[in-house]
Automatic annotation (TrEMBL), chains A, B:
<protein>
    <submittedName>
        <fullName>TetR/AcrR family transcriptional regulator</fullName>
    </submittedName>
</protein>
<keyword id="KW-0238">DNA-binding</keyword>
<feature type="domain" description="HTH tetR-type">
    <location>
        <begin position="15"/>
        <end position="75"/>
    </location>
</feature>
<dbReference type="InterPro" id="IPR050109">
    <property type="entry name" value="HTH-type_TetR-like_transc_reg"/>
</dbReference>
<dbReference type="Pfam" id="PF16859">
    <property type="entry name" value="TetR_C_11"/>
</dbReference>
<feature type="DNA-binding region" description="H-T-H motif">
    <location>
        <begin position="38"/>
        <end position="57"/>
    </location>
</feature>
<keyword id="KW-0805">Transcription regulation</keyword>
<keyword id="KW-0804">Transcription</keyword>
<dbReference type="InterPro" id="IPR011075">
    <property type="entry name" value="TetR_C"/>
</dbReference>
<dbReference type="InterPro" id="IPR036271">
    <property type="entry name" value="Tet_transcr_reg_TetR-rel_C_sf"/>
</dbReference>
<dbReference type="InterPro" id="IPR009057">
    <property type="entry name" value="Homeodomain-like_sf"/>
</dbReference>
<dbReference type="InterPro" id="IPR001647">
    <property type="entry name" value="HTH_TetR"/>
</dbReference>
<dbReference type="Pfam" id="PF00440">
    <property type="entry name" value="TetR_N"/>
</dbReference>
Length: 203, 203
């Protein structure tokens, strides 16, 4: 099939199969967990042959990774609002992150991918490059604009600052210590911003 | 054997076997990873019979968990110094945490346990109750003493504060984004403490 010239119809069919496979992987990981997820079950749920999946992906982890990536792209990708009010913008985004992490649609595949990536360095690298770093870069861009506007200290290390925003949420989510509430997101934003405020010495 | 009265000699032999098993599990998870770790291999390395392990532990995850717990206890357990200098005390402890997480002796079993606990709620609970929460409680106690001494704002939420200290280190470690340096640990401590400083309104 890959040798045939692609017609608009076959391209459309391929895209339809691809989406069905990605959706099936997401649904199934939520139902049975990553350990019991199989290529067979994904194929059956998507209504395609096993070989169709093997032609496009080397492993169930790579299917699930692409499912998660499609999910992130559907939600508009990582862009932070810039209304000029840094505190409001960060609270909006971290509250949305808290809600997303609590939503089984994101929670289960991301947890499975994170667990899997602990003993799969290639998956860890891909997860970092394609999912995580673009999100972190969006935070960094928003903080840079605030620093340029004099809202945060010119000496602030933006990379450390953004990790201080997302790290505590991630910690609570990954380790399931306490619920990921909006109040928690707000409190993290407020403390970090007080910590980054331009001091009298920098005016 | 469990029906026999325990003599000092048999108790000593049991303890020796237990330590050999815990040490073997730690060594092996570093060599082969959690996925390929087996009770058979632990027994062979420890020089005991498989049945000795099954008598004491229900699964390889629970052996590894006890290995990790013994390792933490050997290092003195979670106590934070209180020299009166909060910033110095926190930097000391977070630098040590960064070093520990970068040390394969801690890194590999803790990574395996964290990954495993993503789809094993009982293990997640045990990891939280016996390893994580005691560490977090030690941070909270140190912050409370600082709040009582007026070094941080009386309005500071100590639980959120401690998660802001450990969360960023954990995030960088778990996701392997950037190296866990002492400079990073210091920067996190400095920003959090500026964020928690008592404001003029609270004096």
């Amino acid at each position: 099939m890959s040798e045939q010239p692609r017609t608009p119809d076959s391209a459309r069919r391929s895209e339809r199969s691809r989406r069905a496979i990605l959706d099936a992987a997401l649904e199934l990981v939520g139902e049975v967990g990553f350990g019991k997820l199989t290529i067979e079950a994904i194929a059956a749920r998507a209504g395609v042959g096993k070989q169709t999946i093997y032609r496009w992906w080397p492993s169930k982890a790579s299917v699930l990774f692409d499912s998660f990536l499609a999910l992130s792209e559907d939600s508009g990708g990582p862009v932070l609002p810039d209304t000029g009010d840094l505190e409001a913008d960060l609270k909006l985004v971290l509250r949305a992150t808290a809600d997303e992490l609590a939503d089984p649609k994101y929670d289960l595949p991301l947890r499975a991918l994170t667990a899997e990536s602990q003993h799969d360095p290639a998956l860890a690298r891909e997860l970092n490059e394609k999912v995580l770093e673009p999100q972190l870069a969006a935070f960094e861009a928003r903080l840079r604009s605030a620093r340029d506007a004099g809202r945060i200290s010119p000496r602030a290390d933006l990379r450390v600052a953004l990790e201080m925003l997302v790290g505590p949420l991630y910690h609570r989510w990954m380790l399931r210590t306490l619920p990921l509430t909006h109040a928690y997101a707000d409190s993290v934003v407020e403390t970090v911003l007080r910590g980054l405020a331009p001091g009298p010495e920098s005016v």
